[in-house]
């Protein structure tokens, strides 16, 4: 049995490595988002600065380990076997839960998952003990309910606190600097930089360093007695340094953002490192105590030793920091999660990641009503002053940035202060909650949520917050079920759970790699949004639209081939794949339409008006062709799933030449949407008409055949007719797409040559 427990401890540490990698993809990215979104420095520079912050903050994690040891349950009433079940259930549930959320690109919270997993696993083990030999014990005796409640309240209150503080602080900061801040810095930047740096010194150093294990009681007392003097000297010195840097033409805001990145990285490591390694280290400490004093009886030996303070060796903390930094720099999932927060807080209209929801629409409508009421009651001069300070058309963000350095600095400073304050009170505030909600509050103050984007942004925020609550529920239930199964099932179930966890991790990563596609034309889309030359914008937009249309035509050709082949072969598996791919392509088309509409607004007004009708016709044609393919797939899939008769040989011989001509037309169209050769487009449109005529003759032949009382299977005949009719409609859609393409490209040199 002791060998099994040793294996479990090793397994906990192995999963902790995965947990560090997966968790950093979700949580550690939070302290990079503001620097990345504001383009404060090169990505490598940001990573290096963040890495130093992680290493510095790792030394602060020791006190936070107490949450995993005795913050949720009372270990003196739990046996070694009970705690092994709890710890293993927590780590297995955590790794699977976080990996699923990261694969979906949704930021969740390691703090929430860990706390609720501990609570769920401890709760079910407590119930088992209450119903068993320890029936004299109550739930209050077994669970540290007071501490657990304070931790949970701290986590969820941080949502409201971070959002409110983010909104207020950003409003004040923006009112001072305005969007046209570069010409208004002068003496302000020294004071702002001094305040920001002093805040770092207070919350990062005074609240962090004095809790380090190497600090003497005398040094701690000195810091407590002279806090005001230290802060005053820091403010004066930092203000003078920042003003001097500004005089030397150094961008002080970039310095502030990078210092903030460092500070938030420290806060992250000090507050969240416990979420990644706290449970395995607590399990290791339990194993050491059991082997030394347990006398080989894991079911009766209680773990009161965990009530003592954690004394984590420094090499564990440093090793965890190394894994986090490497994972952060190499993780594709981290970049996927990062896009969510940056996208929802972007100052520019852009690629909205979320759709519209009823609650978001109501919130927006209510907000508009409140705004209208406020405008009627606020004096006109005050309104004019606010509008001047918050004129978003004068924004001076860095090239390609989602927001400016003013907002980036507020995001980092405020989030770092709130997290450090929670850490100093031994409350594991969620870095995800705090950084995300601060970013949403600052973006709201900055008027980043325009009427065109507000409903999508609010839907996104609601979706993310909803994901956090789902995390709590799933973590509690999942850990409770796994803990109960292991407690009752013993060693066989523990081994089985370990195998399943590893298999799910491998499967999840393989599926993520298979699903991951590069954002189509994303670099060009950003270039269009950031371009100030309207003529260049239109040239880029034509290339961008052509690229998307070519991609869709390639997809349509491949999918049409797969669908018809699968129907002929009676292959339901490939029909199911095609059905899922078509629904996914529908969402991509809707997303591209939104992005292209945003780009069209940046084109010269006369050109936009002239081309808008053809732009919408092209997009509608693609949507129509996608619908035709879906209708073919649905009917064929239902037919094959019901095991009805396959397509007769006589139908195949007639259909295959028609299909080949359709695929050939789609292949030609891929070339023409790029070069816009009007003469070739006219020729291909005529070819589409000929294909439609051929399909019509085939349909009429089948109708005549059926009216003459021909014997045969009517069901497969109707499916075949549906395929022909939808194929005919798809050719109509292709004709319209080609016509729209020729009109959109009508002023191109290639198009004029082709027309000549």
UniProtKB/TrEMBL annotation:
Specify the protein name: Phosphate transporter
What are the GO cellular component annotations? Answer: membrane
**Superkingdom of origin organism:** Bacteria
Q: Report how it sits in the membrane.
A: Multi-pass membrane protein
What sections of the protein cross the membrane? 6-29, 41-60, 80-100, 112-131, 151-177, 189-206, 226-245, 252-270, 313-330, 429-449, 461-485, 491-510
Of which family is this protein a member?
A: Belongs to the inorganic phosphate transporter (PiT) (TC 2.A.20) family.
- Which processes are annotated in GO (biological process)? phosphate ion transmembrane transport
The organism's lineage? Bacteria, Pseudomonadati, Bacteroidota, Bacteroidia, Bacteroidales
Which keywords belong to this entry? Membrane, Phosphate transport, Transmembrane, Transmembrane helix, Transport
Xref: InterPro entries: Phos_transporter
Q: Where is this protein found?
A: Membrane
Provide the species name.
Muribaculum intestinale
What GO molecular function annotations does the UniProt record carry, in alphabetical order?
Answer: phosphate transmembrane transporter activity
């Amino acid at each position: 049995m002791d060998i099994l427990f040793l294996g479990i401890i090793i397994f906990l540490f192995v999963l902790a490595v995965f947990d560090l990698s997966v968790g950093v993809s979700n949580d550690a990215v939070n302290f990079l988002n503001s620097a990345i979104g504001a383009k404060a420095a090169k990505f490598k520079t940001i990573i290096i600065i963040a890495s130093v912050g992680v290493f510095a903050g790792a030394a602060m994690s020791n006190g936070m380990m107490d949450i995993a040891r005795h913050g949720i349950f009372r270990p003196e009433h739990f046996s070694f076997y009970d705690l092994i079940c709890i710890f293993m259930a927590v780590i297995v549930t955590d790794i699977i839960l976080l990996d699923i959320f990261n694969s979906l690109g949704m930021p969740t919270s390691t703090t929430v998952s860990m706390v609720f997993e501990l609570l769920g696993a401890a709760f079910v083990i407590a119930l088992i003990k209450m119903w068993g030999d320890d029936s004299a014990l109550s739930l209050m005796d077994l669970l540290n309910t007071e501490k657990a409640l304070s931790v949970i309240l701290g986590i969820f209150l941080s949502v409201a606190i971070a959002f409110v503080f983010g909104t207020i602080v950003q409003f004040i900061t923006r009112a001072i600097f305005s969007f046209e801040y570069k010409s208004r810095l002068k003496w302000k930047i020294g004071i702002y930089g001094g305040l920001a740096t002093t805040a770092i010194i207070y919350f990062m150093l005074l609240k962090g360093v004095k809790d380090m294990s190497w600090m003497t009681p005398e040094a701690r007392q000195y810091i407590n007695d002279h806090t005001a003097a230290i802060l005053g000297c820091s403010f004066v010195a930092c203000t003078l340094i920042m003003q001097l840097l500004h005089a030397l033409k150094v961008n002080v805001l970039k310095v502030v953002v990078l210092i903030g990145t460092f500070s938030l990285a420290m806060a992250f490591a000090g507050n969240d490192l416990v979420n990644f390694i706290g449970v395995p280290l607590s399990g290791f400490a339990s194993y050491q105590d059991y082997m030394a004093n347990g006398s080989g009886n894991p079911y009766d030996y209680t773990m009161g030793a965990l009530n003592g303070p954690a004394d984590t060796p420094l090499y564990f903390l440093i090793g965890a920091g190394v894994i986090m930094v490497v994972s952060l720099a190499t993780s594709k999932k981290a970049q996927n999660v990062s896009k969510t927060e940056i996208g929802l807080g972007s100052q520019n209209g852009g690629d909205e990641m979320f759709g519209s929801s009823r609650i978001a629409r109501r919130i927006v409508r209510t907000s508009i009503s409140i705004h209208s009421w406020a405008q009627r009651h606020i004096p006109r001069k005050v309104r004019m002053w606010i509008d001047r300070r918050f004129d978003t058309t004068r924004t001076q963000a860095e090239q390609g940035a989602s927001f400016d350095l003013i907002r980036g600095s507020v995001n980092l400073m405020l989030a770092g202060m709130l997290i450090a304050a929670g850490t100093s009170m031994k409350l594991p505030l969620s870095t995800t909650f705090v950084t995300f909600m601060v970013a949403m509050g600052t973006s709201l103050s900055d008027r980043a949520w325009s009427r065109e984007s507000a409903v999508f942004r609010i839907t996104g925020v609601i979706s993310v917050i909803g994901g956090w609550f789902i995390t709590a529920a799933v973590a509690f239930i999942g850990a409770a079920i796994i803990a109960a199964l292991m407690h009752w099932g013993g060693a066989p179930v523990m081994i089985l759970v370990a195998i399943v966890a590893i298999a799910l991790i491998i499967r999840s990563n393989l599926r993520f790699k298979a699903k991951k596609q590069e954002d189509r034309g994303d670099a060009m889309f950003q270039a269009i949004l950031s371009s100030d030359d309207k003529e260049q914008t239109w040239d880029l937009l034509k290339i961008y639209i052509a690229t998307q249309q070519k991609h869709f035509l390639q997809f349509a050709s491949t999918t049409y081939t797969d669908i018809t082949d699968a129907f002929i072969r009676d292959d339901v598996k490939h029909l199911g794949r095609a059905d899922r791919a078509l629904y996914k392509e529908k969402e991509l088309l809707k997303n591209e339409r939104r992005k292209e509409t945003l780009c069209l607004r940046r084109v010269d007004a006369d050109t936009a008006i002239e081309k808008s009708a053809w732009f919408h016709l092209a997009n509608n044609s693609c949507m129509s062709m996608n619908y035709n393919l879906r209708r073919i797939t649905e009917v064929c899939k239902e037919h094959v799933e019901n095991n009805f008769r396959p397509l007769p040989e006589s139908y195949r011989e007639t259909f295959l030449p028609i299909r080949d001509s359709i695929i050939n037309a789609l292949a030609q169209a891929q070339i023409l949407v790029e070069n816009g050769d009007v003469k070739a487009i006219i020729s291909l449109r005529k070819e589409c008409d000929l294909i439609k005529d051929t399909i019509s003759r085939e349909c009429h032949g089948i109708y005549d055949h059926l009216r003459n009382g021909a014997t045969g299977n009517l069901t497969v005949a109707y499916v075949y007719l549906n395929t022909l009719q939808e194929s005919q409609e798809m050719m109509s859609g292709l004709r319209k797409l080609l016509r729209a393409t020729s009109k959109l490209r009508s002023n191109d040199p290639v198009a004029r040559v082709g027309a000549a």
